[in-house]
């Protein structure tokens, strides 16, 4: 796609910058103002050391009616869902959103009315209270005991919030620093933060213990990056605000932007002593970061609590519900509609029956002079109560038990346990397990989620020879090498691994000057900063790449010892040398290289340069070529003058510097090249490949730069392929504009959907788009800029003119939505979608678009605080626990330590959970239809009088004791195939995505199956009882005997349906015991409650005295029961056999050959495992220059950030610790 012309969007203000992190609809009008506008009217004002300033009337906002409070938030936070006062109302509201719970509440109210009550009111109240109570306790436990760390101990959200709010820091009060809790901090306070402390609020850096108020921060909690970043205070505050009394007298006024979620931007002005000083993000310490390599610093609280940027990026806590939950609600509505129709029909029947029969039979007179129509009305409500078991209240309790068990299985899965960090997998919710089996789209972060963010020096090429393979000291290639022993180098890093002994022998022998020059360049051409702390060297690199290269040079004997703004000292072959730095041509995204001009000890001037290359591209390594050239004194003097002019330019300084840099970086001599490996996490390629086979699409949403996202690690990760055609933002914009023009030209454009594909070869395309282009394509931010422009012009927008087909601007909201829908359709035609340089808000917006236009089940996975919004927006949120902090884990539904565990979570636990839940629900609906509809058939023979077909206690215990355990075990334990086969055949996952196992089709099958069973349960015994004589000469045709036979037939049938109808695959002794035990339990309880003894104690409650013993001593009735059960089961057996024989599913085929596959798996395990890393012959441009961030060149040249080199340097320790650092936020 490199040859494609870049299309510029019509109507856009500027072409999007691919290297800049944009912001979309979360951008406020205040953020779009210029700094001049900000000076005239700031939205946020803070006075140092003045808490009362924020309480002024002009800073008050209305909360409710006339109640007002300060717009400045306190510093306390809360992430938990409930507290003592809100738990009960919120939880009840959440539970009564379930239609079934509301349904049973209405039934309870009906049962209190004596005229229509056909069952005691407590038969509904007790189960309802039980259901609500169990669910409430589970929700409370979820909120109180949910893990917010991934360590061996668990902490509740309440306790974690309490711990954070009670952290201590020093605040300046009444002229002196006192220790206080974070909770008590207020906007305008001056605070002191010490080394390794978390930053309590968004703070303006005033001064620090380092020279020029330089302060290093770790932003893992904020953006997922482990590299340190530096911040710097204003020069005026650094010079005048070091001591406690100076800080106490500080009364500066800060005027800045309103609180927002922009992690990359801050605009403000400090007014102090009648002078104004501009402020930007480099002066800000953001909450969630940690102070590193700085003994202490002082700062002024600007934003506190919920106003901080990290809290603004958190998004709202959303109540997540599964598709099955939503479908169950609709099915409850359907059942209720059927129930109303049935009851209405029965009520009409009772009206006509009473009119024609009941009113004329003197023995049916009840003493109530009700009209037939009124009796029909009462009968309607009576049947509503009787037939309410069509939706059993125990269904929801059983569902919660199953989900809890499934969550425990995830927690106990040792194959998802990461032993290196003692981190188990954790299901942090118990309500979403079955949705894990229906995922269609995965949205993943890259850094720390797919990759380890660890760079390793693997190979190099010097003078045409490649080094890095396993070789002996004589240069002989070895089949199996061993790591080089660096014990000869006391500064070597013990973690550094290298197997080329020949390179080491060349360096130590000093025979090849090019090799020595190569590693000298690595030790000198960089912007790595080094500090000597108590005899230990600490490296601070602008990127992991630079850190890896300098570390490699150190191990090979070229050790960076010290540097100042104008000098670098290295240990070169056990001899210390100092080189004067004349100029540092720092990296930027246009030049994609960096250079250093040095004066050697002998007076020579030499330029060292390193930049991107493709020499090791086939090995999927990040590559740099290394070059140099000597410069004469005259040439350097001329160039230095040009450089000085460009560096002082007020306008377009960077462009002017680039021109000067290009002039000197000419006619370079190539020394060689380096190859660095950016390691993926273990198992990432295999995981992505298996998920792709399961038809799960993976999109990468990251803040990394575009060049980094075309990186070779994504090739290794199976996201990109060599034959893919890559489309970038400008190409996408052209395609969408053409589709928009086509729709405008079509007379029926608004009435018909254009279904033509965007690409001629779907599946062979990849989309790489930046956040700036994402805004441009989706029309984000333009509307606000236009509104701001109109606001400045003080005029209203004109009436929209007819659409111009040549304009790319949307004419209305419909066109904007169509544009968004077209983008989603185009992206879904691609095999890989990668969105880079996107903000946390944009990540969430992309997820929302796919959910909105594709109606798909989505999963987001990330490891940092910048992924929280995306995790909360998706249907399922997964947090990767590790080095990147706890924010992602705290907001996730599931957490584990490695991306590769995702395949087991979805393809094994998710699929099992979905299948189990679907089987459970289908069976539960079936057994209750079969149970309840017997009352319906019985009504035609009892005058529609609302009489039940069973005794009351059977109705009460049917769902609780007699039929719940077998299907509960299926919902907990059933496996169609084992975990190995689930992973081996990802296609088994497809039925869950399609919702094939539980939908309205399955619901109506269960309904008709229940109707058929209820017909058999009623009419076969009814026919057997007609004109029948028992062995004792008595007719067994009484109502109680009929109820016993019908109930016994029902219990045996529904329990035997578990292994037959549900096709139970994982059949164990436990399942067998549950089925037979439930039947035995029924007979045991029935004989007890039909006994004379219990009737004597409770004569009004147990009225079926002797019914069971009298009925079941008749062999004829046992034959009736056997016939009924056989007729009910035989059709199901036949249908199951036909389906598995003629139309077998993928699961049926796998089950049929299960033994064969299991033997193959066992044989495979005996074989030697393949290497962890497999290289493919691929060709891609190196991404080093893209991933490398702008370094510390300007900082070094300024001389502000580094202490002068000490005259006497103490002895260095044996080990040198490297702390990599990266770009400014």
UniProtKB/TrEMBL annotation:
UniProt keyword annotation of Nucleus present: no
Active site, UniProt feature: 445
This protein's record includes keyword Protein transport: no
GO cellular component, as recorded: plasma membrane; trans-Golgi network
Ranges annotated as biased composition (Basic residues): 1167-1181
Domain P-type ATPase N-terminal: 55-125
GO molecular function annotation: ATP binding; ATP hydrolysis activity; ATPase-coupled intramembrane lipid transporter activity; magnesium ion binding
InterPro entries: ATPase_P-typ_cyto_dom_N, ATPase_P-typ_P_site, ATPase_P-typ_TM_dom_sf, ATPase_P-typ_transduc_dom_A_sf, ATPase_P-type_domA, HAD-like_sf, HAD_sf, P-type_ATPase_IV
Ranges for region Disordered: 1-39, 790-816, 1157-1225
EC number: 7.6.2.1
P-type ATPase C-terminal domain ranges (all copies): 889-1145
Principal subcellular localization: membrane
Name the UniProt record assigns to this protein: Phospholipid-transporting ATPase
Organism, scientific name: Danionella cerebrum
């Amino acid at each position: 796609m490199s040859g494609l012309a870049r299309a510029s969007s019509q109507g856009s203000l500027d072409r999007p910058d691919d290297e800049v992190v944009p912001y979309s609809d979360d951008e406020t009008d205040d953020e779009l103002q210029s700094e001049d506008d900000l000076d005239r009217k700031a939205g946020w004002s803070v006075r140092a050391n003045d808490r009362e300033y924020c309480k002024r009337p002009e800073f008050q906002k209305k909360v409710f009616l006339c109640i007002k409070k300060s717009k400045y938030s306190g510093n306390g936070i809360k992430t938990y869902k409930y507290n003592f006062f809100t738990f009960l109302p919120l939880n009840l509201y959440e539970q009564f959103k379930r239609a079934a719970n509301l349904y049973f509440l209405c039934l309870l109210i009906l049962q209190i009315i004596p005229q229509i009550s056909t069952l005691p009111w407590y038969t509904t109240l007790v189960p309802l209270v039980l259901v609500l109570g169990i669910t409430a306790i589970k929700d409370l436990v979820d909120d109180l005991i949910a893990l917010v760390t991934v360590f061996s101990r668990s902490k509740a959200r309440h306790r974690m919030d309490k711990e954070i709010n009670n952290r201590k820091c020093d605040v300046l009060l009444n002229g002196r620093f006192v220790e206080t809790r974070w909770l008590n901090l207020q906007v305008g306070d001056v605070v002191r933060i010490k080394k390794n402390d978390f930053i309590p609020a968004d703070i303006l850096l005033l001064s620090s213990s380092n020279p020029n108020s330089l302060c290093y921060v770790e932003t893992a909690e904020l953006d997922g990056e482990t590299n340190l970043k530096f911040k710097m205070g204003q020069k005026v505050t650094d010079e005048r605000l070091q001591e406690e009394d100076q800080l106490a007298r500080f009364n500066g006024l800060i005027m800045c932007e309103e609180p927002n979620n922009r992690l990359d931007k801050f605009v403000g002005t400090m007014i102090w002593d009648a002078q104004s000083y501009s402020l930007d993000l480099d002066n800000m310490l953001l909450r969630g970061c940690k102070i590193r390599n700085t003994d202490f610093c002082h700062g002024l609280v600007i934003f506190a609590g919920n106003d901080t940027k990290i809290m603004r990026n958190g998004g709202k806590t959303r109540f997540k519900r599964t598709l099955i939950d939503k479908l169950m609600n609709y099915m409850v509505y359907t059942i209720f509609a059927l129930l109303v129709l049935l009851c209405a029909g029965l009520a009409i029947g009772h009206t006509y029956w009473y009119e024609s029969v009941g009113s004329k039979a003197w023995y049916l007179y009840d003493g109530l002079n009700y009209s037939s129509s009124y009796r029909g009305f009462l009968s309607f409500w009576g049947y509503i109560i009787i037939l309410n078991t069509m939706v059993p209240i125990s269904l929801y309790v059983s569902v919660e038990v199953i989900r809890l068990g499934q969550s425990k299985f995830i927690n106990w899965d040792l194959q998802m346990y990461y032993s290196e960090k003692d981190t188990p997998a954790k299901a942090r919710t118990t309500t979403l397990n079955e949705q894990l089996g229906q995922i269609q789209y995965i949205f993943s972060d890259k850094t720390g989620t797919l990759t380890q963010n660890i760079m390793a020096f693997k190979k190099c090429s010097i003078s045409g020879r490649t080094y890095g393979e396993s070789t002996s000291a004589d240069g002989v290639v070895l089949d199996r090498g061993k790591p080089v022993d660096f014990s000869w180098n006391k500064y070597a890093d013990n973690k550094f691994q290298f197997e080329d002994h020949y390179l080491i022998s060349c360096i130590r022998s000093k025979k090849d000057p090019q090799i020595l020059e190569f590693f000298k360049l690595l030790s000198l051409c960089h912007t790595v900063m080094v500090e000597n702390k108590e005899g230990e060297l600490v490296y601070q690199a602008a990127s992991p790449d630079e850190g890896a290269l300098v570390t490699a040079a150190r191990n090979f004997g070229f050790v960076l010892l010290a540097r100042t703004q104008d000098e670098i000292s290295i240990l070169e072959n056990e001899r210390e040398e100092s080189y004067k730095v004349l100029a540092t041509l720092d990296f930027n995204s246009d030049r994609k290289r960096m250079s250093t001009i040095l004066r050697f000890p002998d007076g020579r001037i030499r330029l060292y340069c390193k930049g991107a290359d493709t020499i090791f591209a086939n090995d999927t390594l990040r590559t740099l070529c290394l070059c140099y050239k000597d410069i004469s004194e005259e040439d350097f003097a001329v160039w230095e003058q040009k450089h000085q002019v460009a560096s002082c330019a007020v306008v377009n300084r960077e462009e002017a510097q680039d021109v000067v840099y290009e002039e000197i970086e000419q006619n370079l001599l190539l020394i060689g090249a380096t190859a660095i490996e950016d390691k993926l996490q273990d198992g990432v390629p295999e995981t992505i490949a298996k998920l792709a086979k399961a038809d799960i699409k993976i999109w990468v949403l990251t803040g990394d730069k575009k060049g980094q996202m075309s990186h070779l690690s994504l090739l290794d990760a199976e996201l990109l392929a060599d034959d893919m055609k890559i489309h970038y933002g400008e190409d996408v914009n052209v395609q969408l504009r053409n589709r928009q023009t086509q729709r405008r030209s079509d007379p029926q454009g608004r009435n018909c959907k254009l279904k033509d594909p965007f690409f001629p070869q779907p599946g062979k395309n990849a989309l790489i788009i930046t956040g700036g282009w994402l805004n441009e394509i989706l029309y984000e931010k333009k509307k606000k800029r236009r509104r701001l422009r109109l606001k400045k012009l003080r005029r209203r927008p004109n009436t929209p003119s007819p659409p111009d087909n040549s304009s790319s601007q949307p004419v209305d909201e419909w066109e904007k939505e169509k544009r968004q829908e077209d983008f989603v359709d185009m992206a879904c035609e691609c095999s890989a979608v990668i969105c880079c340089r996107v903000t946390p808000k944009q990540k969430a917006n992309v997820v929302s678009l796919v959910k909105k236009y594709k109606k798909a089940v989505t999963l987001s996975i990330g490891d940092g605080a910048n992924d929280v919004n995306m995790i909360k927006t998706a249907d399922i949120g997964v947090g990767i626990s590790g080095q990147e902090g706890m924010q992602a884990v705290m907001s996730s539904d599931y957490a584990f330590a490695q991306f590769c565990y995702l395949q087991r979570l979805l393809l094994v636990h998710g699929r099992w959970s979905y299948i189990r839940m679907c089987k459970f629900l289908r069976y539960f609906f079936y057994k209750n239809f079969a149970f309840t509809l017997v009352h319906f058939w019985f009504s035609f023979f009892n005058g529609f009088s609302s009489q039940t077909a069973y005794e009351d206690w059977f109705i009460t215990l049917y769902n609780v004791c007699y039929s719940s355990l077998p299907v509960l075990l299926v919902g907990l334990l059933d496996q169609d195939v084992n975990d190995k086969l689930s992973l081996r055949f990802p296609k088994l996952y497809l039925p869950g995505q399609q919702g094939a196992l539980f939908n309205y089709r399955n619901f109506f099958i269960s309904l008709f199956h229940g109707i058929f069973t209820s017909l058999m349960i009623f009419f076969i015994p009814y026919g057997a009882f007609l004109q029948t004589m028992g062995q004792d000469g008595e007719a067994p045709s009484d109502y109680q005997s009929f109820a016993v036979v019908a109930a016994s037939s029902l219990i045996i049938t529904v329990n035997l349906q578990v292994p037959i109808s549900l096709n139970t695959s994982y059949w164990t002794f436990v399942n067998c015991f549950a089925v037979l035990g439930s039947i035995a339990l029924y007979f045991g309880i029935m004989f007890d409650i039909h006994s004379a003894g219990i009737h004597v104690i409770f004569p009004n409650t147990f009225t079926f005295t002797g019914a069971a013993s009298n009925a079941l001593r008749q062999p004829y009735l046992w034959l009736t029961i056997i016939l009924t059960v056989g007729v009910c089961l035989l059709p199901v057996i036949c249908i199951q056999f036909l389906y598995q024989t003629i139309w077998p599913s993928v699961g049926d085929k796998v089950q049929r050959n299960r033994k064969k596959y299991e033997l193959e798996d066992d044989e495979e395990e005996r074989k030697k495992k393949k290497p962890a890393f497999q290289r493919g012959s691929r060709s891609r441009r190196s991404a080093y220059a893209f991933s490398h961030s702008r370094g510390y060149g300007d900082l070094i040249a300024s001389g502000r950030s580094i202490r002068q080199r000490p005259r006497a340097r103490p002895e260095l320790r044996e080990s040198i610790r490297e702390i990599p650092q990266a770009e400014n936020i």
